[in-house]
Amino acid sequence: MASSTEGVSGAVEAMHGLQLSNEDPYRSHMTGEGEKDTAWRHGGPPSYHVVNSLFEQTRTQEWCKGSLERVVQDLVKTWEMELSHKTKLEDFKTLHPQKFRFSVNGGPWLTGQETLKVGSYNALLQTKLEGEHGAYKASQETFESSHDVFRAAFPGGFAWEVLEVYPGPPTVAFKWRHWGVMEGPFKGHPPSHDTINSIGTCIAKVKVIRL
Q1: What is the pLDDT of residues 160-180, one digit of tens each?
Q2: Could you report the per-residue pLDDT of 33-70, keeping only the tens digit for each?
Q3: How far apart are the first and last CA of the chain?
Q4: Which end of the chain is more exposed for a tag (fewer CB within 10 A), N or C?
Q5: Region labeled Disordered — which residues (predicted)?
Q6: What is the rounded distance in angstroms from the CA atom of residue 60 to the CA atom of residue 172?
């Protein structure tokens, strides 16, 4: 899977400076003065304790704080958190509401508002493949149903990590891994109890803010 993203913001000197929440070691912009008026999908900021445990126990890379790899990883985790749990694009801190756009595997570009409407799973899993390769049809899922499907299949969490980062900002290319243990059913398929791995790449154009 390959994705392209433009209009990502929030990097600082050497891409340091993401203000990680006291409640989460990998995601920022969940608590604090900057979030006092944030509209949360479920009434308040989420908890990532379950998936963080899976991540820490089974990741293949452990990046040092302040490294480009760690900052990219935390920035993407924060973007996913905002996309899944904030309901207004103007509350996002990881993207420019007017400039952000997103494309997967050479498919159509989605605006920030379109991406927010369909959700991360449906945006990332757009495909024209049929048969067994088209088991998940993003066009037939809603934001809510897509999250229900993956929460049911991966009750122990669906973790994400950066494997490699290539050029640095303002254009950042990186390789990633998304994984979880299939302990629940998925679209009529019974639990396999196997670790399911998805590997992909992304090219992101970011705005570097130097403080």
Answers
A1: 999 999 987 889 999 999 999
A2: 999 999 999 999 999 999 999 999 999 999 999 999 99
A3: 34
A4: C
A5: 17-43
A6: 21
Q: What pLDDT was estimated at residue 209?
A: 57
207: three-class secondary structure by DSSP: strand
Dig out the tokens for 121 from the structure. Answer: 């799973």
Mean pLDDT of 185-190: 94
Per the CB < 8 A criterion, the answer to whether 18 and 10 are in contact is yes
The string of DSSP codes covering 39-70 is -BTTSS----HHHHHHHHHH-S--PPTTSHHH
List the beta strands (DSSP E) in 90-170: 101-104, 110-111, 159-165
Question: Which residue from 155, 158, 146 is spatially nearest to 191, judged by alpha carbons?
Answer: 155
**Stated length of the chain:** 211
Q: What is the DSSP letter of 95?
A: B
Local confidence band at 20 (pLDDT 50, 70, 90 cut-offs) = low
Q: What is the mean pLDDT of the chain?
A: 89
In angstroms, rounded to a whole number, what is the distance separating the alpha carbons of residues 211 and 208?
A: 10
* Dihedral (CA of 129, 135, 141, 145) sign: negative
Q: Which residue has the tokens 């050497």?
A: 14
Token pair in block for residue 164: 């490699």
Cα separation of 190 and 185, whole Å? 5
